[in-house]
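PROTEIN DESIGN WORKSHEET
SECTION A - STRUCTURE
LENGTH: 285
TOKENS:
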């Protein structure tokens, strides 16, 4: 039996537990170390400890010296300049800034439209001059009061026909006001006459009517014309001072004002005129 044992291979034997316990390092030892530390982790990874870590200083960035542009950079710079030049060409320089061309065009179009509207629909410049007087003479002539009333209603722009109540010629005065009409448009202006809008409230019941002395007038394009407006007043119970105050407080307006371009007639906004304070109307004239 002994000779057989020495000449043959030993059967497989269990590992010696004492030898295993004495092994150092490796998987088994690491597992034992973690188990002894009450840590259930089998990754065998090293855990960093930041408590004693030294701060790391990040080096400051320093600007490098400018290097000459290569060909690609030059092309990029040239394209940028071209785009800036295109922006300038699409706009107009106002002060130190460029205004977009579309905005400039819009402003110009609006300005032209406003100018055309003003030229077409606004009245000529209308100003009272310092010329005016009280006309002497019998307004009745051979007419009766009723006949004169009918004539006034037919030919004048009536303010208050009831003010024509007296049959005495001395109770009426015709006062004139000269007005400059400045037509700065390419249209011919047609003016049928003027009417009284208002006056001092103390004497409003004394105004009868107003009219142009020569009837309807025409004003040529780009010209100035002076017309005379006649105002019929009932002066009964008025003093010279009251009479003058009445006349210089009157506001006139155009009636039927229109512009013509060939056969086309265009109604316009009426013009208002304040009788000049520099005028003096004497009741005894």
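SECTION B - SEQUENCE
RESIDUE ASSIGNMENT:
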């Amino acid at each position: 039996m002994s000779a057989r044992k020495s000449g043959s291979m030993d059967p497989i034997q269990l590992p010696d537990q004492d030898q295993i316990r004495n092994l150092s390092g490796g998987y088994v030892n690491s597992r034992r170390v973690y188990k002894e530390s009450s840590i259930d982790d089998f990754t065998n990874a090293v855990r960093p400890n930041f408590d004693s870590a030294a701060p790391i200083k990040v080096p400051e960035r320093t600007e490098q010296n400018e290097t000459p542009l290569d060909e690609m950079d030059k092309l990029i710079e040239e394209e940028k300049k071209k785009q800036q030049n295109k922006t300038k060409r699409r706009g107009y320089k106002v002060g130190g800034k460029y205004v977009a061309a579309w905005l400039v065009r819009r402003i110009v179009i609006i300005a032209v439209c406003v100018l055309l509207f003003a030229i077409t629909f606004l009245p000529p410049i209308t100003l009272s001059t310092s010329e005016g007087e009280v006309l002497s003479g019998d307004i009745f002539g051979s007419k009766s009061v009723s006949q004169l009333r009918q004539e006034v209603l037919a030919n004048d722009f009536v303010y208050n026909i009831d003010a024509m109540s007296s049959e005495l010629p001395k109770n009426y005065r015709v006062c004139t006001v000269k007005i400059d009409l400045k037509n700065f448009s390419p249209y011919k202006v047609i003016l049928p006459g003027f009417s009284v809008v208002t006056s001092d409230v103390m004497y409003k019941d004394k105004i009868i009517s107003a009219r142009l002395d020569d009837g309807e007038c025409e004003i040529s394009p780009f010209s100035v014309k002076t017309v005379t407006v006649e105002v019929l007043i009932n002066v009964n119970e008025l003093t010279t001072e009251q009479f003058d105050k009445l006349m210089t407080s009157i506001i006139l307006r155009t009636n039927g004002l229109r512009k013509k371009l060939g056969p086309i007639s265009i109604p316009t906004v009426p013009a208002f005129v304040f009788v000049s304070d520099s005028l003096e109307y004497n009741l005894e004239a």
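SECTION C - NOTES
The longest strand covers residues 172-183.
The chain is about 30% helix and 30% strand.
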